[in-house]
Write a structure and sequence with these properties.
There is one protein chain. About 40% of the residues lie in helices and about 10% in strands. A six-stranded parallel sheet has the order 2-1-3-4-5-6, sandwiched between helices. The protein has a single domain, classed as Alpha/Beta hydrolase fold, catalytic domain (Rossmann fold), CATH 3.40.50. It has eleven helices and six strands. It has about 270 residues and is of the alpha/beta class.
């Protein structure tokens, strides 16, 4: 690939915003959610931004923060629309943004990765089946979120909002916009996955919703144009964290997330987004 080809490979018509999932700040100095993905995309011509939303606030509140972040980016870039690539719960926030906050005219596409579009049975298990002192645990998680930078963390509410019952209601209330292109990808942890913790989580969830990425079922990950299971020739098993490069969390280091994102953004460019 020549320098000219490299600099135009991901030069999509509209800027890209990366929306992280539950429990993380995407640019925290100690927990870098996206790793080297943004810089790698920029090296190939993409105009990339982080959403900078909070880790443990409610889905609607994060969607509102995302709205103003996008409006600021569009003002700076003088573009009319944006491409959203969202991981996990971030995908629900992106859909809420388009379907309930009137931002669909400013969104060209929403790509979701491992988003629990039909809810996460893992949340159901934690909320209803594990013998945890939930309110005490939530206070500890909220303290952690405050240290990350959350202003008003509510970890228990955030978890409830990705439960199967809550997302069922969400889907009844949040309607897709015909102005937005929706596509989705899923992960899959199989018996050959290199880490026993992810394999154990996947086996627990499998009893409730079949094959999954260690947190979210494949069927739940499907929304809009379903593009299939994320994998490459070196990594046939990709966890919920691997798909965005979080391999340092006991992940599959054979999966190259940055090249997966590279091809994904290139395809958006080729589609005219």
């Amino acid at each position: 690939m020549t320098t000219e080809d490299r600099l135009s490979y991901c030069s999509s018509n509209y800027p890209i915003i990366l929306v992280s999932g539950l429990g993380f700040h995407d640019q925290h100095r100690l927990l870098n959610y996206w790793g080297n993905i943004p810089e790698f995309l920029k090296m190939h011509g993409a105009d990339v931004y982080a959403a900078n939303q909070e880790a443990f606030i409610s889905l609607p509140d994060n969607a509102i923060k995302l709205k103003f972040r996008i409006l600021d980016i569009l003002d700076k870039t003088k573009k009319e629309r944006i491409n959203i690539i969202a991981h996990s719960k971030g995908g629900l926030e992106a859909r809420y943004l388009a379907g309930r906050l009137g931002m669909d005219e400013h969104i060209a596409s929403i790509t979701t990765l491992g988003t629990p579009h039909k809810g996460a049975y893992l949340a159901d298990i934690i909320l209803g089946r594990l013998p945890l002192p939930k309110f005490a645990a939530a206070r500890l998680v909220n303290l952690y979120a405050t240290l990350l930078g959350d202003k008003r963390p509510d970890s228990l509410r955030s978890l409830v909002q990705v439960s199967t019952q809550s997302v069922q209601q969400f889907n009844e209330e949040v309607i897709d916009s015909s102005m937005v292109y929706y596509q989705s990808y899923a992960g899959h942890v199989n018996k050959h996955y290199p880490n026993i913790i992810w394999r154990t989580m996947a086996n627990i969830i499998k009893d409730y919703e079949g094959s999954n990425d260690g947190m979210v079922g494949i069927e739940s990950s499907k929304w809009g144009n379903y593009r299939g299971i994320i994998q490459n020739e070196n990594a046939l098993s990709v966890s919920h964290g691997d798909m965005v490069g979080l391999t340092h969390f006991l992940g599959n280091t054979k999966f190259d997330a940055k090249h997966f994102f590279l091809d994904m953004v290139h395809e958006l460019k080729e589609k005219g987004y």
